[in-house]
Amino acid sequence: MKEKQMIKSPLGGYNLKTSSLRELAWQVAPNLLISFRYAWAGVSYAFVTQRNFRIHAAIATIAISLGLILRITPVEMAIVTLTSALVMVLELLNTALESVVDLTVGQSYHELAKIAKDCAAGAVLISALAALLVASFILLPPLFSLIFQLGTF
Ligand SMILES: Nc1ncnc2c1ncn2[C@@H]1O[C@H](COP(=O)(O)OP(=O)(O)OP(=O)(O)O)[C@@H](O)[C@H]1O
């Protein structure tokens, strides 16, 4: 049975809190499998429509494969995986935010829409730069030593 609670907000007014269903949602996933399917639909949408997401996915695949080939330690592997995933996660959030902004303001110019989109793009940029640095620190030394070893044969 659905339970509703009216919570007094500190800024005045009330927030409607429901224990199980979100009443304002057009549809709520009835089970975990369908939830997963919606999440996968989001990832597929980003992959098909966002060139940057495809680039990040390709770079992440290369970085993780290199890590396996170079036999870096499990902790290093975890760091490379996490930083690569972070870039893709932020790209997904950037795509979500762009959609919400476009839904709100349509094709009209709004200074706040610009701030929202620019900041979301900035978050992706910073995570990509950090991932590049992390990959350089972890992958380049063993890669260079492998190339050096191959060169000496
Ligand atoms: N409605 C708007 N009002 C004001 N500025 C906007 C608006 N829509 C987009 N812009 C500006 O145009 C830029 C590009 O918008 P767009 O929606 O293509 O985002 P993007 O980050 O370039 O997309 P992608 O991540 O797909 O490359 C934004 O970063 C923002 O500066």
UniProtKB/TrEMBL annotation:
It comes from Hydrococcus rivularis NIES-593. Its main location: membrane. Substrate binds at residue 91. Belongs to the bacterial diacylglycerol kinase family. The active site is at residue 91. The chain crosses the membrane at residues 55-72, 78-97, 118-140. ATP binds at residues 38, 98, 117-118. GO terms for biological process: phospholipid biosynthetic process. Mn(2+), Zn(2+), Cd(2+) and Co(2+) support activity to lesser extents. This is Diacylglycerol kinase. The keyword Cytoplasm does not apply. One of its GO terms (cellular component) is plasma membrane. InterPro entries: DAGK, DAGK_sf, UDPK. GO terms for molecular function: ATP binding; kinase activity; metal ion binding. It is a multi-pass membrane protein. Keywords: ATP-binding, Cell membrane, Kinase, Lipid biosynthesis, Lipid metabolism, Magnesium, Membrane, Metal-binding, Nucleotide-binding, Phospholipid biosynthesis, Phospholipid metabolism, Transferase, Transmembrane, Transmembrane helix. CDD domains: UDPK_IM_like (cd14265). Coiled coil: none annotated.
